[in-house]
Amino acid sequence: MGEMSSFQLGVIGALFLSVASSVSIVICNKALMSNLGFPFATTLTSWHLMVTFCSLHAAQRFHLFENKSVDMKTVMLFGILNGISIGLLNLSLGFNSVGFYQMTKLAIIPFTVLLETIFLKKQFSQQIKMSLLVLLLGVGIASVTDLQLNMLGTIISMLAIATTCVGQILTNTIQKRLNVSSTQLLYQSAPFQAAVLFVSGPLVDQLLTKQNVFAFKYSPIVLAFIILSCIISVSVNFSTFLVIGKTSPVTYQVLGHLKTCLVLGFGYTLLHDPFTERNIIGILVAIFGMGLYSYFCTQENKKKQSGDSLASQMKDHKETTALLGHQENEGHEVKKTAKNSVV
């Protein structure tokens, strides 16, 4: 019971850290890109990952966590895949309308459910599926505006969905099957993610913005926001691996849509972004869907725990019965031996 309470507290802490850090970095990056004119998102992400690796390396040197070696090929492929997915998501935003990009992000949940059902044989109840549908409907109402399709943008979006889903499923699977923590996996994979984006980032950004990141004039305030963004990113990257490891890729995506709703709300409150009745209705529907998802997940976990507890009790009962039967047989043998000795 104590271990279960500790695990639940750990999950709640991971969820809170993920929401707080993600909303913070979105607001910081929005100020950096919209107000200060720094449009190089992919290159900035490569800096995030480099700072994350350096921070974890320092933490490991101070023995704040124990490094665990994982098969280099597995970590390398995993890191490269995640780096590619980030680049593809940024390209998807560049080659599609904002509305179609939001649809791309919404498609990640059903595609993840499909992949886990087919390849990992994971079962999702009808209640869970219904709550996810309500959630996606709400986020779609709140965030999807225009839908403009083009062939290249659609292909990039499909590749972004596939790589993102596979990357997040692997984040969960590798931690559980190889028995590594979120910190250990992030520490080993971050250099490869950073390398992919460090090489491709300037090219992707120049393709999307028609500007050169190396020719940009870096004022002190721009540098200050870049440093702040990199510092927050350490928490974002750490909490991402932590949440996926402790929960599931689907739960992480649900949490991501909660962040979308919060960002919309903060954007209206702090940055005075336009806000309509449609945004309000969509956010309320999405929050209702999240509530349903949380409720049904909790109920299913309780059923699973009670089933495991019952199975454990039955096993203990069988073992006790077998032990008592064995002792009784020994008692009979002793009495029989004593009787024969008297004769």
Automatic annotation (TrEMBL):
Protein's name in the database: Uncharacterized protein
